[in-house]
Specification:
The complex is a heterodimer of chains A (about 200) and B (about 160). Chain A has about 200 residues and is α/β, with parallel strands linked by helices. Chain A has one domain. Chain A is about 35% helix and about 15% strand. Chain A has a five-stranded mixed beta sheet with strand order 4-3-2-5-6, with helices on one face. The longest helix of chain A is centred in the C-terminal third of the chain and has 27 residues. Chain B is about 25% helix and about 20% strand. In chain B, strands 1-7-6-3-4-5 form a six-stranded mixed beta sheet, with helices on one face. Classes of the chains: A alpha/beta (about 200), B alpha/beta (about 160). At the A-B interface, helix 1, strand 1 and helix 3 of A face helix 1, strand 2, strand 6, helix 4 and strand 7 of B.
Chain lengths: ~200, ~160
C-alpha cells in the first residue's frame, strides 16, 4: 500500500482569527493611569479649637455663583496662585517664628512663617466641583512652586525630579535615606496646610 | 527534452505569510495582558475636571473608586437630574459609603489595609454639597486618604 502523508492543515485563516481578537482587545484597552490631587481629611474627633492669629489665615471663599472671595475681596482665579505664594512665603515672624528661607515681603499684617500659615477654603453647597478643583489645584501648585524654589536653592536640583528618582526603582537613589531626608526637609519647610471647612450655607 | 526542466523558474516566489499569525498573536497577547476591563458600567455622567499639579494614583488594587455626578441620559427618567453617588454598579446615598468602605477594606490583605486610598471621580458639574457629604462619611470610617481624580491639563480657562 502506498504511504499517504497526512494532508496539511490550512492555516491561512489563523491570521484572520487572530486579527479579529487583536482588534477587539485594541478597542477595549484603556492603558491609562489615573492621576489626581491627593489630599488628607481631618480625623473625625472633637478637637480643641486652636486659636490662630487672623493674619496667619488666608481665607478663600467660594459662593454659589462660583465667584471667589480672597480675604474678603473678589478675585479672579488666575491671580490666586500669586496671592497664595505671597501669603505663604511672607515670613514676617520674629524670634522663634522667624523664617530664614522665606523670600517674601515680610509684611507684618500677613503670615509669620510657612509652618503657621493656614489656607482655609470655605464653599457653599451649590458651588460647582470644577471651580473647587481649579482653586484647590492653584493652591497646591503654589506650594509646589515654593518647594521647587527652595529645592533649587538648597540642593540645586528640582524637587519633582528628586521625588521621581526616589520612587523610580531604576534610579540609583531608589528609596535612598539621604534623598528622603532632603525631600522631608523641604516638605517640612513648606507644609501643605489647606483646611477645608464644612459648607455652612 | 530534459527531465529536470525547472517549471516556472521565471516567476517570483510567493512571500511566505506563515509567520504572520505568530506576529499577530504576539500583539494579541500584549493587549490581552495590558487590558483593564471596566468592571462597572457607569450610570452617571463622569466628565472629570482638569488640574495641572497632579500625582499618579498608585497601585490599582489599593484604590477604591467613588463616582458621583448627574445621571446619564438613559437613566435620567429613572433617577432625575440631581447628582448622585455610584458605588460599584449601583447608585447610592451618602449613608451607604461607610459600609462600602468597610467591605472594600475587609477584602484586602492585612498589611494593605491602612494604605487604601479613596479616589473621588466626580463630574465637573456636581455641587460641592454632595462632595462634602461624601467626605464627611469617609471621615466617619476613618478613611482619610483621598484623591480627587482629575484629567491632566490646565484648569484655568
Amino acid at each position: 500500500m502506498a504511504k499517504r502523508s497526512a494532508p496539511e492543515v490550512n492555516a491561512g485563516s489563523m491570521a484572520d482569527i487572530a486579527f479579529l481578537l487583536l482588534i477587539f482587545f485594541l478597542v477595549t484597552t484603556t492603558i491609562e493611569v489615573d492621576s489626581g490631587i491627593n489630599s488628607k481629611l481631618p480625623p473625625d474627633i472633637e478637637q480643641d479649637d486652636v486659636i490662630k492669629k487672623q493674619k496667619n489665615i488666608f481665607t478663600v471663599e467660594l459662593n454659589k455663583n462660583n465667584q471667589m472671595l480672597v480675604e474678603g475681596d473678589l478675585m479672579e482665579i488666575k491671580d490666586l496662585k500669586t496671592a497664595a505664594i505671597k501669603f505663604i512665603d511672607n515670613g514676617a515672624g520674629k524670634g522663634k517664628d522667624a523664617c530664614s528661607y522665606c523670600n517674601g515681603a515680610k509684611d507684618p499684617s500677613s503670615s509669620d512663617n510657612p509652618n503657621a500659615a493656614v489656607i482655609s477654603i470655605t464653599h457653599s453647597r451649590a458651588t460647582e466641583y470644577e471651580t473647587f478643583i481649579t482653586v484647590y489645584d492653584q493652591l497646591v501648585s503654589a506650594y509646589s512652586e515654593l518647594r521647587e524654589r527652595l529645592s533649587q536653592k538648597l540642593y540645586n536640583r528640582s524637587f519633582k525630579e528628586m521625588e521621581a528618582s526616589f520612587d523610580d526603582s531604576k534610579s540609583p537613589e531608589f528609596k535612598s535615606e539621604k534623598l528622603k531626608d532632603k525631600i522631608e526637609n523641604i516638605k517640612q519647610k513648606y507644609p501643605r496646610i489647606i483646611s477645608k471647612a464644612e459648607p455652612k450655607f | 527534452m530534459s527531465k529536470f526542466k525547472k517549471k516556472g523558474s521565471n516567476e517570483l516566489p510567493a512571500i511566505s505569510t506563515a509567520s504572520l499569525p505568530d506576529i499577530v498573536f504576539m500583539l494579541l497577547f500584549f493587549f490581552m495582558v495590558a487590558t483593564v476591563m471596566r468592571d462597572s458600567s457607569l450610570k452617571i455622567k463622569n466628565n472629570l475636571p482638569s488640574a495641572e499639579d497632579t500625582e499618579k494614583l498608585g497601585k490599582k488594587n489599593l484604590v477604591m473608586f467613588i463616582y458621583a455626578g448627574p445621571p446619564s441620559d438613559s437613566y435620567k427618567r429613572q433617577y432625575g437630574e440631581e447628582p448622585r453617588i455610584q458605588l460599584n454598579d449601583k447608585l447610592a446615598t451618602p449613608e451607604d459609603i461607610p459600609f462600602f468602605v468597610r467591605s472594600e477594606i475587609d477584602s484586602k490583605r492585612e498589611e494593605e489595609k491602612d494604605k487604601m486610598i479613596a479616589a473621588l471621580k466626580v463630574d465637573k458639574t456636581t455641587n460641592m454639597g454632595l462632595v462634602s457629604d461624601i467626605e464627611q462619611q469617609l471621615r466617619k470610617v476613618n478613611q482619610l486618604k483621598i484623591n480627587y481624580t482629575t484629567k491632566k491639563g490646565s484648569a484655568l480657562k
